[in-house]
Design brief:
The structure is a homodimer. Chain A is of the alpha/beta class. Chain A contains 14 helices and 10 strands. Chains A and B meet through helix 3, strand 2, helix 10 and strand 7 of A and helix 3, strand 2, helix 10 and strand 7 of B.
Chain lengths: 339, 339
Amino acid sequence: MSLRSEIAEQPATAARLLAEGAADANRLGALLSRAKHLTVAARGSSDNAATYGKYLFEGLARIVTASAAPSLVTRYGTPPRYTSGAVIGISQSGAAPDVSAVIAAARRDGALTIAITNRASSALGRAAEHVFELRCGPERAIAATKTYTTSCIALAMLAGAAAGQPLDFAELPDAMREAVESEPDGARIARKIGSARALVVLGRGYGYAAALEAALKIKELARVWAEPYSSADFAHGPRALLERGTPVLLLAARGATEREARSLAAAMRERGARVYAITDDQTLAAKVDDAVLLRRRVGELLSPIVLVVAAQHVAAHVARRHGRDPEKPAGLSKVTRTL
Amino acid sequence: MSLRSEIAEQPATAARLLAEGAADANRLGALLSRAKHLTVAARGSSDNAATYGKYLFEGLARIVTASAAPSLVTRYGTPPRYTSGAVIGISQSGAAPDVSAVIAAARRDGALTIAITNRASSALGRAAEHVFELRCGPERAIAATKTYTTSCIALAMLAGAAAGQPLDFAELPDAMREAVESEPDGARIARKIGSARALVVLGRGYGYAAALEAALKIKELARVWAEPYSSADFAHGPRALLERGTPVLLLAARGATEREARSLAAAMRERGARVYAITDDQTLAAKVDDAVLLRRRVGELLSPIVLVVAAQHVAAHVARRHGRDPEKPAGLSKVTRTL
């Protein structure tokens, strides 16, 4: 039962990183604050953490932040000039060769390079000039959970330090614990989603990053076609997919996008969609068919981390509804060695 | 029949932009070559063109290139500092308010701003310091075709000019004409895809941008769950979706990724997937269940433009197989006013 126990472990791994990583974050944040631009290289769940990091580095630290296209290094041999910028590579195992290749290219250009990894001694850890270690112990489940949330926290610590405006993490472990304890709500929503073969997962702004990871977890564990969209892009075509009865899972927190989330939920229900939410917004929860309502608030910028913990339970229970064991997802390997 | 006629018009609109836009491209390319970083703001098909542009600007002009998160401007009021960089906004109508908002924020920072649009007098055209006009006449079909391919060509012209290394476009209009004439092949593949409710669309490197747009066209026109992936990311979980019989559409050109595409196609067929390709690679075409084989070569960097033209036919015919009129896609509007 490594998946379930690693989901439950997250409040503790978060607290450990926040305590033990603070000095590293301040040191590396000061270096990052001088970068003219930032690139984040990652795959899979780590790439979803990277998207969350992009919002924080652009919105908080005000640094233009790109997502690396590793094939430009590994296939074409034509990386951009990373000079005067910084590159962060994220890989829990540190064994992703294409992420290391991007870091190596950036280091040749004299850029600041940072590895966010759970294994400082890995190839990625050795390739980068600096390592920010996730400190969350070995992750045994195939699906990333605690390494995903600690990667997000590492990025939030770095972005806050780079901005000279550290985020307030005080409530985060307790809010994550509430999300861990929301399993019965997640299981109930999974029952209502039932055996639908397809699912739309929506978020906006910071919530979009959470939607990406929630959708990936559902795909990995349940093999359901869970498509993530920014609710802004959703109007551009993908909305056409919303047949009557297609379930929608909306990840949304109080804050700058709350009114939009509420009216989107109402509009989708009018179109006949079944809408479920993972949210800290009681008003939104009352407008949808069912919700995981999280009452502890951590602020909109940290909310995606909490929403994803609750979504991990939904994904695991959707998998069970499809007769799949979330502890043993088929067709996946823990470390993916794409070059 | 505006969709079909606009698909057919693309070799001519491409030739016109290449001829009439050359001076603009050189002038703006020289300005772009001085940018320390680049951000591209766009939605929908234009955002798929932006992804293609990212590969060219990073791979050819060597400028780190980010995708804008417009909500940071329109919802949070916290854009990154665009100073010393450039921002390109892409919108065929020029009426996308969030794209204009990103351009306006960049202009306030003193960054170089360029609008790529079919309407120079639009809000986007007025917001940007410079306009690169698509010159392709009004697009009447709901689904973008000629404005997508001319946006890609505009980006390729700008990236080549910024690199001081213009691409060779000489064969492009004729290659696009061959793709227009591939409609019977596209219709045949659509018949074979049949009424599958889900489809995986794959590409790698430059071909990934083409996969994004092919998948969006299929979603928009046919309401089929067409999920695009980089074949590199595909191993990270989404591969778990490949049940026996799930059709795969692979967009791949000769070049740096050709061996990978061939072995991926073989591996997926071994797993029981039906694999279809749109390609200029005869060897790949022989390894899959069926292919649109395009014999004219334009080089790997321009190939996505040609592959997408052939994919437009596939999308329209998949729509017909589902009893939908691709000329009148339901639930879509031509101009999407997301803020």
